[in-house]
Amino acid sequence: MSWDLYPALDIRAGRVVRLRQGDYAQETRYDTDPLAQAMHYAEAGARWMHLVDLDAARAGGYTLIPLLRTIKAETGLAVQTGGGVRRETDLLRLIEAGADRVVVGSLAVQEPEQVAGWIARYGAGRITVALDTRRDASGRWQLPVHGWTQSEAGGRTLDTLAAAYAGIGLKHLLCTDIARDGMLAGPNLALYAHLRALAPTLAVQASGGVRDLADLRAVQACGCAGAVLGKALLDGRFDLTDALREAAVC
């Protein structure tokens, strides 16, 4: 299984930001232009990037088409992107604009049959299902939706949906431990080991908590296919070139 790193840009109101545990009231803004940052990642040797429309994740209606087109035209990066993908027309708009993979989150939780149809029609290589999760008091991994601001009302859990998507041929699964997101507390290795045991055919992307190169080695060792890198890169805790070199030898 290939091992990829996904430097991430989360965009809110046109600016690069990071949230703490998905809380829109706890935002850190970065004084960097999104396109310039994407070009920096490409120059460092990245193959992929992860682009998120935070406004659309909460309200629907992906707004980053112009930025997506420009990144594709000027950087050569493969782009995995999402936020607010609620209808098939949203999916098709992103594919037409150059998205290599479209990330589907809330809809993948609330309407899994519809997303299964998309996977069948457009191919497992074009869609990344995001099952972002928070553990409840009983120990179950719940799946908040709409930018992690609402609870999923259908009773679906990470375990039930990950197994179901693996069963219909999903390839790429992005899983963020919300409690770790933006916290630089280390990735939840037990969560990813659990997912790999539950659905070994899925290429799992770890997200949330990566703080150093040792974390990358640990994520790879537990069987993940890649890792999303956000706050640690923006804060300069390690260099992307070093991270990519580390990934190449893992």
Automatic annotation (TrEMBL):
GO biological process, one term: L-histidine biosynthetic process
Pathway note: Amino-acid biosynthesis; L-histidine biosynthesis; L-histidine from 5-phospho-alpha-D-ribose 1-diphosphate: step 4/9
Enzyme Commission (EC) number: 5.3.1.16
CDD domains in UniProt: HisA
One term under GO cellular component: cytoplasm
Keyword vocabulary terms for this entry: Amino-acid biosynthesis, Cytoplasm, Histidine biosynthesis, Isomerase
Catalytic activity: 1-(5-phospho-beta-D-ribosyl)-5-[(5-phospho-beta-D-ribosylamino)methylideneamino]imidazole-4-carboxamide = 5-[(5-phospho-1-deoxy-D-ribulos-1-ylimino)methylamino]-1-(5-phospho-beta-D-ribosyl)imidazole-4-carboxamide
Gene3D superfamilies in the record: Aldolase class I
Molecular function GO labels: 1-(5-phosphoribosyl)-5-[(5-phosphoribosylamino)methylideneamino]imidazole-4-carboxamide isomerase activity
First-listed, main subcellular location of the protein, grouped into a coarse class: cytoplasm
UniProt keyword annotation of Cytoplasm present: yes
Xref: Pfam families: His_biosynth (PF00977)
Compartments, as annotated in UniProt: Cytoplasm
Catalytic residue positions: 10 (proton acceptor), 132 (proton donor)
Family: Belongs to the HisA/HisF family.
Protein name: 1-(5-phosphoribosyl)-5-[(5-phosphoribosylamino)methylideneamino] imidazole-4-carboxamide isomerase
Species of origin: Rehaibacterium terrae
